Amino acid sequence: MELRENTVFVGNKPVMNYVLAVVTQFNNGANQVAIKARGKAISRAVDTAEIALNRFLEGVEKKEILISTEVIDTDSGKTNVSSIEIVLTNNK
Q1: Which of 37, 44, 52, 69 could serve as a FRET partner for 20 with CA atoms 20 to 30 Å apart?
Q2: What are phi and psi of 78, to 5 degrees?
Q3: Does the pTM of the predicted model rise above 0.85?
Q4: Burial label, 46 (beta-carbon count in 10 A; 0-12, 13-18, 19+)
Q5: In what order do the strands lie in the sheet with 77-90?
Q6: How far is 87 from 92, CA to CA, in rounded Å?
Q7: Domains recognised in the chain with CATH numbers
Q8: Considering only 59-63, 83-87, 88-92, which range has the smallest mean pLDDT?
């Protein structure tokens, strides 16, 4: 997954924090925003995209959804972590 200019990384904060970040980027003129998450935060990323699209953003739609597995180092060795990238694009 390449790093895009307008990317929101989803972690453990409440979903609305990330929704606000996505909406703010579009309001500041971004044509495309990527929402990225790994592991347990994936469902929060999906919620972020759906809430932003259904409640706050007119003329914005899902462009692509990329899924992958990342290998990360932990104290107990290497482990696989699922990741998702949801790309939203402005059609105005």
Answers
A1: 69
A2: -85, 145
A3: yes
A4: middle
A5: 7-9, 32-38, 77-90, 60-74
A6: 16
A7: 7-90 (3.30.110.20)
A8: 88-92
